[in-house]
């Protein structure tokens, strides 16, 4: 299996920035994904990185360093609706996705 | 993005009965579908990988005789939980991929099925 680590919980204030780190060890690598999941719902796709560097998509950005086995998801201008679980997932050499345990982000007014 | 439809969204069944969950790709052909299980406040755990026209590949610890997977066409995969017990109560989610050759493809998820066994 894969080892994917991310913090369990993070709290931030509305309008602030939060960075969720993810470290991984995998056999083969075919991309790293970030998903948002609200309670009781399926994950929704946020971002995809396969090359090193930063991918920016509106208020959300994701960074990847393959040599370090490291990624982060950056959420800017936090809104209350951003309160959710954020899942880091790595696709291995067999194109299977393995998920981290998720980071619960709580946005406070 | 592509749409994956999962049905039913919620099901309550009696202990000992079987439940079938369907996963359909609505606007693309899914050569591979994945079935996940998620317990409360835990992440998604891959149960099995389903390829059209062949037997599913199960992850370690997942009983293939209990969780029957059929991928009869490029747009439909089914998961049948046989002889369900209360410990099988969970959130089951499918995802579909357009193919292993395109590394830009994200996995598209169904809406999930909340199974409660009483």
Helix content of chain B: under 10%
Largest sheet of chain A: 6 strands, mixed
Please compute the radius of gyration of chain A using only Cα atoms. 13 Å
The value of Rg of chain B in angstroms is 14 Å
- Kindly report how far apart the N and C termini of chain B lie: 36 Å
The chain pair with the largest interface is: A-B, 21 and 25 residues
- Shape summary of chain B: globular
How do the SSEs of chain A run, as a string of H and E? Answer: EEEEEEEEEEE
Q: List how many beta strands of chain B DSSP finds.
A: 11
* Unreliable stretches of chain B: none
Structural class of chain B: mainly beta
Mean pLDDT of chain B: 89
- Assembly state here? heterodimer
Total beta-strand segments of chain A: 11
Proportion of β residues of chain A? Answer: over 45%
Roughly what fraction of the amino acids of chain B lie in strands? over 45%
| Straight-line distance between termini of chain A | 39 Å
What's the layout of helices and strands?
The complex is a heterodimer of chains A (109) and B (118).
Chain A (H helix, E strand, L loop, with lengths): L2 E3 L3 E5 L4 E8 L6 E6 L6 E6 L3 E5 L2 E6 L4 E6 L8 E8 L5 E3 L3 E6 L1
Parallel strand pairs in A: 2-11
Antiparallel strand pairs in A: 1-3, 3-8, 4-5, 4-9, 6-7, 7-8, 9-10, 9-11
Chain B lengths: L3 E4 L2 E4 L5 E7 L6 E7 L6 E7 L5 E2 L8 E7 L2 E6 L8 E8 L10 E2 L3 E5 L1
Parallel strand pairs in B: 2-11
Antiparallel strand pairs in B: 1-3, 3-8, 4-5, 4-9, 5-6, 7-8, 9-10, 9-11
């Amino acid at each position: 299996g894969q080892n994917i680590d991310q913090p369990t919980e993070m709290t931030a204030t509305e309008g602030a920035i939060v960075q969720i780190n993810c470290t991984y060890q995998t056999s083969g690598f075919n991309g790293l994904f970030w998903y948002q999941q609200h309670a009781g719902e399926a994950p929704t796709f946020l971002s995809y990185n396969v090359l090193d560097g930063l991918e920016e998509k509106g208020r959300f950005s994701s960074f990847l360093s393959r040599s370090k086995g490291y990624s982060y998801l950056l959420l800017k201008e936090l809104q209350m609706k951003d309160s959710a679980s954020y899942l880091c997932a790595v696709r291995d050499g067999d194109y299977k996705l393995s998920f981290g345990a998720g980071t619960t982000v709580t946005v406070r007014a | 993005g592509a749409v994956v439809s999962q049905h039913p969204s919620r099901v309550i069944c009696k202990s000992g009965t079987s439940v079938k969950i369907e996963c359909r790709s609505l606007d693309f052909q899914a050569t591979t579908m994945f079935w996940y299980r998620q317990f409360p406040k835990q992440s998604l755990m891959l149960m099995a990988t389903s390829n059209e026209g062949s037997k599913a590949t199960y992850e370690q610890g997942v009983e293939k005789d209990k969780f029957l997977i059929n991928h009869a066409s490029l747009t439909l995969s089914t998961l049948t939980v046989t002889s369900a017990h209360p410990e099988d109560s969970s959130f089951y989610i499918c995802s579909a991929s357009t193919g292993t050759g395109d590394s830009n493809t994200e996995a598209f998820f169904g809406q999930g099925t909340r199974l409660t066994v009483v």
